[in-house]
């Protein structure tokens, strides 16, 4: 018997309904509360991307070079807002090459 049946019956025994407990052969991911663990990571990352986009919409002007020729010697705040700092989002350099489908 294929190992996907073992995974199916373990999932059913843990309380999942049969429609949710099925895993396609070759899928080696665990389910948490009926939701695939990798799906939860994708959702969290998607929400982080949306939050980062919103942060740029709200505070992105704070890091813009509004006087590139320094003609006005404006007293502009050049501090990077925390919400625009990629280190604070939890993304790594590896994540920068990923694509996200946004509405």
Q: Helices and strands: which structural class?
A: mainly alpha
Taking all Cα atoms into account, the compactness measure Rg is 23 Å
Roughly what fraction of the amino acids lie in strands? under 5%
Gross morphology = rod-shaped
Helix tally equals 4
Distance between the termini: 43 Å
Unreliable stretches (pLDDT < 50, length at least 5) are none
Largest sheet composition: 2 strands, antiparallel
Approximately how much helix is present in the residues?
40-55%
Q: What order do the strands of the largest sheet run in, or round the barrel if closed?
A: 1-2
Description:
The protein is mainly alpha-helical. The protein is about 40% helix and about 5% strand. It is built from four helices and two strands, in the order ααββαα. It has helices at about 5-15, 20, 35-60, 85-90, and strands spanning about 30, 35. Strands 1-2 form a two-stranded antiparallel sheet. The mean pLDDT is about 75.
